[in-house]
Amino acid sequence: MENLQCQCGHTNPPGTKLCESCGRSLTEKEQNSKLVDMRYEGTARRSQTYNKSIIDKIWNFFSSVKVGVSIIVILLVAAAIGTILPQQAFVPASTEATIKDYYADTYGSVGRVYHFLGFHDLYSSYWFIALVGMLAISLVIASLDRFVPLYKSLKNQRVLRHPSFMDKQRIYAEGPGAEDTLLKAEEKLKELKYNVRTDKNGLLAEKGRFSRWGPYVNHIGLIIFLFGVMLRMVPGFYIDESLWLREGETRAIPEVPGYYLESKNFELENYTGEDGEEVFGEALDRVGTVAKNYQTDVILYQKAEEALPGASDSQEAVGEYAIRVNQPLKFDGYAIYQMDYRLDELKAMKFAFTNKETEESLGELTIDLIDPEKTYELESGAKVELLGYYPDFSGFEGGEPQTATPLPNNPGFLVKLTTPETPEGETSFITIQNTVEPLGENDYKLTFQSVETRDVSGLTVRKDSTLPILGLGGLIFMIGVAQGMYFNHRRFWIQQKADGTILLAGHTNKNWFGLKKDLDQVVDYASLPAYTDQQDEIDKKEKAEKEGEALS
Amino acid sequence: MGEQVKQKKKNKKQKRAVMRTVILAVLVAAIGYTIYNSATAKDVTLLEVGDKAPDFALVDLEGNDHKLSDYEGQGVFLNFWGTWCKPCAKEMPAMDRQYEAFSNDGVQVLAVNIAQSDFEVQSFADQYGLSFPVVIDKTKSVMTAYNIRPLPTTVLVNPEGNIERIITGEMTEQDIAGFMEEIKPE
Fold first, then answer.
1. Is the ipTM of this complex over 0.85?
2. CATH numeric code, A163-208+488-551
3. For B143, which residue in chain A has the nearest alpha carbon?
4. Distance, in angstroms, between B35 CA and closest chain A CA?
5. Are B137 and B156 in contact (CB under 8 A)?
6. CA spacing 20 to 30 A to A365: which of A228, A264, A354, B33?
7. Residues A473-492: pLDDT tens digits?
C-alpha cells in the first residue's frame, strides 16, 4: 500500500481514514458516509503494509482484536470444560499413575481423553498457560498498536480542520455569527474548564483527553496482574503446603527451612447456649452443635544458625502462639492457618495384667503408642515384654504381622507375659478386638482398660510474595476503568469564515448528553448558531423509512 | 533529498523490526519460563542431581551421631524408609548384603527412618539383622530438607558430597550393586 497524500498536502501513513492534519476523509467509504468514524481519530490502527517479515506477520496477528477475543473465548470454554470432571486435587489419588488410572477407571474413555488433554489439572496444563500467555501478548501488542497512533494524533492535532471534517461530526452547526462570537465562545469554554487553543479564524476546545488512555491503563494493570500470577509458578514466591500435626509432636515445617512447630494442644469449642450465650439457644436447638473455636496451641522453634537439620539440640523456641481460624501464626513472611482437625487419635492404651482363671489383677500398665517401651515391669513381679508393635495392624503375611501405616489406628502388640509363677513366659498377640495365643493356651492375659487419645491439627503453610504485585495490578486496572468510564473526552471545533459564518462541530467519546449540556451554555452566551445532532436525524430518518415501508 | 528520505525510512523500518522482535522475544520468554516452572513444579523442586546434598546430623540406634559431611570422600547411599512400607522392607536385605560387599570400598549406607519410635525401628533392625547404621528423623526435618515424598527414596551422594542420583521406589539387588558402584570413590 502507498502513503496517502491528502488534498491539503499532508502525507498520511497507509490505512489512515481521516487526514491527520486537516481531517478530510481519505477513503471512499468515509467520503460517502454522512458521519465520520472517529475511533482512534481515523488514524491507521496498525500499519498494514508492514507485513513483510515473519515478525511483522506475528505482530499483526496479535494486534487483531478478533484474535484477542477468540483467545478469551477459547479460555472460557476450556475453563468451563475443566469443571465437568473433578480437578486432580479433589481426586482420591496422589501419584501421577494412580491419578491417570482414576480418570480412566471412573469415567472411561472420556476420562482418559480428559486426562490426556490436561483438563484434570487445567491451570497447570501447558496449552492453557500458553493461551493465557498469548492473551498477554495480544494485550500488549494490540494496545501498543492503538495507543501510539492515537497518542500522536491527539498530541499533534490542529485547530483548523477542513469543513468536510466538521460537517461530518455528529454535533454540527452552521450559521451567521457576530464579530465577537469566537472570543465569547472562548471565554465561556474556558470557564467550563476546557483547554482552548486558537489559530487564525478558529478555535479548538478540549477537555478530559486523559480519559482516552483508560483502556490502555487498564491493560497495563492486567499485564501486571498476569505477571504476578506467573511469578506464583517460580519457586519461592508461592507456597501452599499442608501439615498434619499431632498433639505433642514437633515437626519441621514443610517448605519453611529452619523452622519447627510443636503442637501443645488442639481445642474444638462449641457454643453451649449457657453463660451469656442464651441468645444462641434457639439457633442451637435448630441445628444442633455449632463450633465456636478451632484452636491449636503451638510452640514455634527456629534452628540455631549453624545447626544442621536433625540435630535435636539445635532448636530454639521463638515463642508460644495460638492458631485460630482466620488468625494465622505469621512469621518471616510465612503464615500458618488452622484448616482442619481430627479428634481422638489413639495415643496410649492401658491394660490390666490378669489371671484368666481367678480374674485377679497383677497390676496395670500403659503402653505409649507413639513411643512404646521394650519391657514393662509391674510391682507384683509380673513383666510384659514387647516383642513386636504394629501401629496399624493389617493382617498377617507369611506369619508376620503387618502394619499399613505408621499411625496407631489399629494397634497390635506381640507380647511375652511372665510372672514369678510362669518364669518361662507366655506369648500372645493383642489387638483392640481380640487376643490370639499362638503358642498354646495361656494362664494370663492383658485386659484392656482404657485409652488415651490426642487430637490432630490440619494446618496450612502459606507464603505468597506475589500479593502486592496482584494488588498493584488490580489497582491500576481499576484506575484505568474509572479513567475510561467516569471521564469523557470532549472537543469543540469552531471556525468563522470571512463572511462571518460560524462552523461548529463537537465530539465526545461517550456521554453526548453532557457534551450537549456544555454546548448549550456556550451557544447561549456566545450566540452561536443552533446545532443539530446528526446521528439523531439519521436514526429518525431510518425509523421513518422503516415505518413507510411497513405502511406500503 | 530523495536519498535522505529513503535512508530515514530504512532506519525507521530497522528500528521497528528490532522493537517488535525484542517485545515478542521478552513475552515469549516469559511464557516459556512459566511453562517450564509449571512442568517442574511437581517434581522435587528443592533438590536436583548435581546439587550439594544438604548436610544433616542424626543419631543412630546405638546413640552414635552421624553427620553427612563426616562422610566426605566416601560415597553415601542414603535410604529413606519406614517399617510400614513393604518395598522398603523388601530391599533392606539386599542393601545389607551389598553394604557388606562395598563397605570396604568406601561406600557408606545410612538408612533414615521417618519419625517412628525407637522400639519399632530397633525391632525391625534386629529382625533383618541390619549391619549399617539406622538413624531416625524424629522431626522429619531431614525428610523436609530432602523433599522426600514417596517411600522408599534413595539419594546417592558421591564422594564430593554432591547428589549423584535420586531413586524413588523399590530397587533390585542388581540396581543396588550398580548404584554403589556409581558412588564408589576412585
1. no
2. 3.30.160.110
3. A252
4. 6
5. no
6. A264
7. 999 999 999 999 999 999 99
